[in-house]
Queue: 4 jobs
Job 1
Amino acid sequence: MSGNKVLSDLEIAHKATILPIEEIAERAGINTESLELYGPYKAKINPGKLQLTAGKRAGKVVLVSAMSPTPAGEGKSTTTVGLADSLARAGHKVMIALREPSLGPILGMKGGATGGGYSQVLPMDDINLHFTGDFHAVTSANNALMALVDNHIFQGNDLGIDPRRMTFKRVLDMNDRSLREIVIGLGGPAQGVPRQDGFDITVASEIMAVFCLATDLDDLRSRLGRITFGYTFDRAPVTVADLGVEGALTMLLKDAIKPNLVQTIAGTPALVHGGPFANIAHGCNSLIATTTAQQLADIVVTEAGFGADLGAEKYMDIKARIADVAPSAVVIVATIRALKMQGGVPKDRLTEPDVDALAAGVANLKRHVGNVGKFGITPVVAINKFGTDTAEELDWLLAWCAAEGVEAAVADVWGRGGGGDGGDELAAKVAAAVQAPSTFRHLYPLDLSIEDKIRTIAQEIYGADGVEFSVPARRRLADIEKNGWSDFPVCMAKTQYSFTDDASKLGAPKGFTVHVRELIPKTGAGFIVALTGAVMTMPGLPKEPAAMRMDVDAEGQPTGLF
């Protein structure tokens, strides 16, 4: 703070002492030969050039998730950064692995996405804007594919691609509802073949998912080649390998695939890399970043997007099937104000003390706690403290956690982070959980049918009575079976605000049905996306976008960026 003025996250970031990235790399045990500098405070790591300590065991993973989020914001990334700083303060060798922010929500509703207060990754303005260009590379690869596809159709269509049965769209890293459905190729024969098309946001692209699930460059090329972008007139799937352009797409991603090294305010090394959304994609940073951090640190603190019903479930059932990155501990972030909102209090009254609303809303947290237990792990609850929380409310929630047999701690890492003592108690409980025995398991086996996998997630994680499939989704189930994709895991596309597919139903609803309107096989990523309710793969901007508050000063420094 400066006098009585509460500094913004950006002001705190600009006042922080940021170390040369070579010094952060040295702390992390990263040799200079593997470091590719992007200015003084950012670098990429070439994993193939790392010189690692012989015999070092892979670091243990701490997965940070949350209760169902609210528009008030819960501070999951802030807690992730603060927890890692606190673990480092306690003497553990720690690295952070986070997703890169998307420009769409930055300019839309959320503002910045690099933590907050004194628990941030730096340089926050660079990371939130164009960073090292990874998202631009993914966008370019995605759109190059679609340009090549449409050119193939225009040049004679030797593969027999049916323009009416395309399942891949162009992308843009922006919230732009006007591009959801478009028509291309208008203007006569020289302009291409007219067809209906549309845009997704970059973070929903299958190339982003492939980018984040690939284990190395060769695996990236193989996964890109397996992408199904459409079907022939005979309804046979057509892949990137059929088109013969997987090499070109890999070339466009060859530098982006290297993890990005930055630092926290406290100087903890952080890898920020990749960024699929968790409500429309699988919601985890790149697998390469996570495994690279495991090679360098004893504890890796990572996060999965939105609530544990989305990001954490997908981390367990998708990401942790590909590599040995199963978490040794899971943290569920909760806030007093979010629990009150889940209990029925409107956003403009969340600062008012209300233990009764807290007691009503805690059912949401209880379901998330129980869900994590279904993967064989008992979570630790992190109560992210806000200035409006009362001692009575905090004590009530701690007592509730104790009665439920769940370890919990109040974390004041927004105001007392940056290497301060605000997360010490949480760090101690998480360090103990990391060493405690656990038996990790997936929610479902891969030999279950796609329909049964979806039903298992809906009933076991969301608490639904059942699942209803639209006629198009039923047809796609038959295609999935026919094409041999039934052994893929499922990636549910669902609102983050509710366990149901209706964003308005808060708390822990019962007696509802999940409605699956479409299924999209992502054969390169290796999962089936199930679109539910009204969730969109191209979001729109709110009435008053965060961009309205943003500018640059006379020196070109951003202002209003959260």
Job 2
Amino acid sequence: MKARRALAVVALVGTLSLSAGFVSSAQAVNPSLDVKAHGHLDNGKALPHVSGGTEVTFDEERALGADAQSAASSDLPPDAAVSALGCANRGSPTNRRVNQDCTARRQAEEQVAVNPLDPTNVIAGQNDSRIGFNHCGFDYSLDQGATFGDGLPPFFQHLNPGTGHTYDAASDPNVTFNGAGVAWYSCVVFDVNSNATGLLAVPSTAALKGSAYANVGAGASKFVVAEANDGHTFYDKQFMAGDPRTGQKSVYVTFTVFNSDQKCSTGNNPGAYCSSEIFYSKWDATSQRWSPIANVSGSSPLCTGGNTFDKKAAADACNFDQGSMPVVDPSDGSVFVVWSNGNTPTALNQQLGRRINTDGTMGPVVKVGQDDESHVALCDFGRGPEECVKSLNVRTNDYPAVAVDPTNPNHLVAVWQDGRHAADASGTYNVVVSDSTNGGRTWTDAAGGGTVLDGVTGAALSQPSVAITRTGTTAVSFYNANPYSGTAVGGGTFGYGLRARAAGATSFSAYRSVSDGQAYPSPQANASQRGFLGDYSSIAASTAPGSNLVHAVWADTRNSGAAGPDEDVFLATITP
């Protein structure tokens, strides 16, 4: 395995490339995920790279097992009394444990959705390594999050058409509902020893309510959004959004397509990164399949340097992208997409957005907000320097989340993590809130004037999510890493909480704890989980008429054993 890996040539950003003169894709590992492959521009600005869930998973698989770096005790279940089916008792009445396994394997990187036809039906997804290599897990509740069942999706019968091999692992779990009450689940999938990469998205049924999902057959399948094994392509970080209008069956998925090629290689670009653009596909209820993927990133005067690596690209191409999220307009079924973009001449990056009309045409690329990456903290998890929460020694990112106001579809809210109020390299991140009241044409943070949510001095807020309730309350949830003055790597502590803004208000409430505790240990002490707490957390509003409830999901380390802190997923249902 390692000999083949040494022949792989690219990797910097999260692409998968091999030049034509190297080993065949059937023999080569995914070069974009190789160690020390992160690249940068001449001014030192980091290029996009494959998101943590996928990358961390691959690093573990390279070591021949998800817990290969840990002590033998990591493979033993915790010695905890079983008093509930599925070890649900490892939660609390206020923080229900979402994943139901009894192992000490990691669950993290979660998302939640609520059935528009049945507010008691709550579903979630998370990265899940209970069976070894990371495989996405799904969760479902029929009682508004009081109890959960869970499972693993039937993704691993499908054969990549180029390699003839089933996929080894999956990451970036994502869930949504459409207006027919059908749950959808998606993940990116990939191989360990080949360049196989794909994106699968499957439905449940209205009656099953997300408790089981359609199988992806061995051959051609209508549930494959995209797949390749050409050594130049990698699919990453997808998010879905269903059309919530009653009876509507459409679902949209947006995702990043990383491309690499030796023609794009420079001294600062060892992974031969060419571009990473946002694409989308739509589930067509008539044809019963995903549409051909279409580019969302486009070109704009907002973007520069698009031809930095790929000389055939337009200079104003918005092609240094990552972390997209769509939301469907409940009034007409159109879609607004937000994403992170690095096509700027300085370390001040930007969050961009674009509307996809119901006929497939698109509006102009607009600036949702500024994204200040100049004060980030960097950690090295064996892949080169990465943005991190330094006190916890876990990777983090600046991907945006977006929500639409059910009381006013012209009101959109986007949130993301940045460091505009941080001291240089301190990593004491804040959360930015940008509003649009005209359907996404203009945004309050386009020139840096959005609302900034800060923690106490020295705290780091990360991985925010946003939901707007049926009464118009905006709830923003996030991880809260406590101030840390120690020197031990990963010696800090954290909790999860939110801040809220009532309809018509201009300011947010004080920080409110959502997790039972606010001083959980970093996963650093567990060799199989250190460095990773997921790439996103999530919050969703109840769909009950007139409700002001939200469901927040996150991972924390309250449960521990001989292997150290164990990442589990929890849900709280609260009035913000």
Job 3
Amino acid sequence: MGAISGSPGAGTAHASAAGGSRLGGYVPLRDYAVIGDGRTAALIARDGSVDWLGLPDLDSAAVFGAVLDADHGGRFTLEPTVPFRAERRYLPHTNVLQTTFSTARGAVRVTDALTLHDEAALTPMRELVRRIDGLSGSVPMRWSVRPRFGYGTARTRFVRRSGVPVATAGTKALAVCSWDAGAPACDGRAISGACEIPSGRSALIAMPFADQEPLVLPARAECEARLDDTSAAWRRWARDRRYPGRWSEAVMRSLLTLKLLVHAPSGAVAAAVTTSLPEQIGGERNWDYRFSWVRDSAFTLAAFLQLGCPAEAHAYFWWLMHASQLTHPHLKVLYRLDGGHRTPERTLPWEGYRGSGPVRTGNAAVGQLQLDTYGELLQTAWQYARAAGHLDADVARRLAELADLVCANWRQPDAGIWEVRSEPRHFTQSKMMCWVALDRAADLAEHDLIPDRHLARWRTERDRIRAFVETHCFSDGLDSYVRSAGGTDLDASVLLGHLYGYRGGHRRMDVTITALADRLRHGPYVERYSGEDGLSGTEGAFVACSFWLVESLARTGRRLQAVDLMEELVGLANDVGLYSEEIDPATGDFLGNLPQGLSHLALISAACAIDAADDTGAAP
């Protein structure tokens, strides 16, 4: 467990065990844990502050956004009024967070959850519950709820309903119900309170929320019961999952994190909880990841199928089929969680995490051509068909039409998997995934799962793609596949060609794995690529790339190397087992949005690959 120590109060620095601090209102990104209810999710810092929460859904405007603007973003603080140390954990096999604050006057434990509801009962639309239990001595606590509706742009009114303080803005309302946590006061900007928690006593704060429906004010007993039921529900869900391998704790935490990214109403899986957390402090690489990317689809379905989540696999596949139908025959790079594809970028008037602007909502990458998405979608459909044994007739027809589109379009340059904002290129990974698309289509047709009238063309174009890649995308001088045709830069994404079954020249992928490990790897960290991408500044090491290297090593007879690297990577998670998008190799600091679904998906895939590999030892 991690620890943090310091004194509370606005503008006070809280020094953490990792050496970070809340300077200027910001904590290191490593200091965040996440809780969720299948519809939205919150980031909670180790000092007890809820610094991010979109309501009513994960991709909605934030009501707490202090992680992106410490002064204007809003937060829900809960902490001792005296110097403290904090340790935290998730309750085993749950997404319920417990933080223990230790002070010279005693210790308390705070249990946080976005509660799961009984659909048959009258319950709040969303509900954050925070229970404070006295463990020893007597600890003075204080709390403050500072909502900022609509990313801080909406005017907030504070009123009382049945004696309960309520904050409203337009059709949205949240209440602050407290029991034994001190009488709540409102100053027109926040709802606050203070209390003393002796050993053996407890207090409870609940924040029910509503949008375009009545605001339900719950009783304490109901909140207590929902908190306990939420823990039990997570345990029941986790009990039916299966992973008997070496990294069971890391894999199960990754799976529980992935479950938090599942949008329950649709089955979509978000890439991350947050928007605009920077890939470089002070840089411009700040993107909104609260959408579902087709590039993640094959990893997502494989994780669900491998770890015993058939309901999630089925829901996700059908969400993907419905979303892509709306833009058929073309695929969008990403889709909203409700299946829509309009995600215009706009900039918020926030300073950004530690001054890293701009803060963006929406993502303009939706308009890019990324040919690799066709390979990922057909790989996903192929996996689903193998598991289910059949495909819906309309889906089968559309998959065949996608293969036809790949035949017509694979020769075009594109923006590639990394969504570069420079000129399109003939990216190697894009071509490899076009090969995968046609190979999977051919296999589905050969097994009578999709129409086969264009099977001969798919095979012919697949062979032409392979010839292009082998002729133009491999450098004899570098002894490696390169980033793009005719280039000299390297790109870790070509590992995905290997992982999805691209068959190139004899031993070419083996030597590419070696070259990427030699040139893009620094300790456990692997860079995405070398060369420019149309943006200024730099970035951290992309976590998923390191796990892709692990899996590639395991699949090419280098299991011992894979195990060694996997052990290092598992140790890079934060104190509660979470990963962001990137990590700064120099400092170990998290960078980019978090928790990042692809990082956790890649961990799961790498762990399963090692378990399946023969123990053959060193590289050939």
Job 4
Amino acid sequence: MPLDDIAAPATRAPRPSRSPRPIRPARPPTAATEATATPADRRGVTALMCACVVLVVGAVAAVNLAVPMLAASGLRPSASALVWIVDLYVVLFACLVIPGGAAGDRYGHRRVLLGGLALFAAGAAVSAAAPGTAVLLAGRAVTGVGAAAVLPNTLAVLLHAAPPARRGAATATWASMTGIGGVAGNVGGGAVLAGGSWRWLFAAVVPVALVLAVLVSRCVPTTPRHARQLDLCGTVLLIAATVALLVGIVQGPESGWGSGVVVAGFVCAAGLFTTWTLVELRTAQPLLDPRLFRLPTLRSACLGMTAVFFGMFALFYVNASFLQYAKGYAVLRTGLGIVPLTVPIVLGARYVGRLTRLAGLDTVLALAFVTVGGGLLGLSTGGTGTSYAEYAAWLLVTGTGVALALPALSGAIAGALPPDRAGVGAGLQATTREFGSALGVAVAGTVLTARFTAALPADLRAGHAAHTVAGALAAAPPDRAHDIVTAFVAGTDGGLRVTGVTVLVAGALVVAESRLSRRRAMRAAPPREAERARHASPTKEAEQERRN
């Protein structure tokens, strides 16, 4: 079925009453446009957009390092509040990133990018000065809104600045930065937090965001605009559904899985996701048309991207506390401890395209999910007696899987949508990444808390409603610290095992869907095209599916 038929509502011209005149650019294109930009101009824009990506993605990972400090601080957050401090940013990031891309299409990518960086700085400043948990969460929410405006528009700017022959490379570079950003957040966050206060972590990103905003205003060219409506109803429903789902997951260990708040969270999530789907099917210009997922390449690639980031950010959440509590590492050493994960991403991502052409997409994806899931399972066998060398080896295995998965999956998502949907396509990529990150943190944190509480000796478990390591260590005698750390290690092992198995199951589904869709495409295509499809890149494969 052609894509135009599948996504007809999304590409339908707006009604005259809503948009009587087409939107015109606020200013003529600058000299640094696709037609006249020099290679140096393009490299400068690429470097600037990569820095913006590292900032907003790194902020997700960096805050994990501050969890032990926050738990022991005067704010006294509960275990669920700690998860929300990490996840509220990610939830709004995930749910608003498609509207952020659509807003860039409508109002100009440069303008929305600047606004996003300003909001990011403002939210970080509020978090740094927060007198209590509620204000800290408000600051995290504002920062998440800013990040959602930044990320999709960085890719849109890159695609507009790059000549057609270089757009595949630009997409691969952007995808690599999203992986590297997580590790950069760990290393940079560890360096900042070594100063001794979690507030410094939020304060440090304020000048960085403002400097990037100044550079964007000077260096980034104006891009074309498209008269598209913003789907406010769909956005609100998606946010509400995601928050309800995470409330059910996060509150389970503290409130009980059969409690009213947990059951209500899951029931509301199911109802809201159903309502969102029905609304999107009837909206002229939806936030995300569910009919797009009739494309097997898009559907499987989105599931794969969600699974990879589910595993990677679950690891970030567990790793930060594990190395500090179980290994006794200082916060800077903890941040550096995750570096082996990034080595394959930095050194190997550039060769994934060549490997895909030689071995085939299905083989590469299968190897990617086996190494990510297997690496997480290997990390779950570690304890206080495990050497760091063994721990680092499993990080390398996990990083190899991430390096294999990101370019292949990003190319598949980008290639499944037409070029004039660049902003929304970038938003879809970011949504799957951040939604996977939010689920990973929520699930790993929930399993960790439940297993930790269950593993505590009965006399230590009583009276500790917060279910945090910091709370247990503060209340227990010093000679019981070993029992608390042992229970915590049991919790981290359980969280990583659940995460690893989930990644393996999702990966099997992705590879099976990819193989089935390729076989259907070859059966429907003429003999020559079928032979070509056997070794097709994700973009060519998606084009074949659209023709069929």
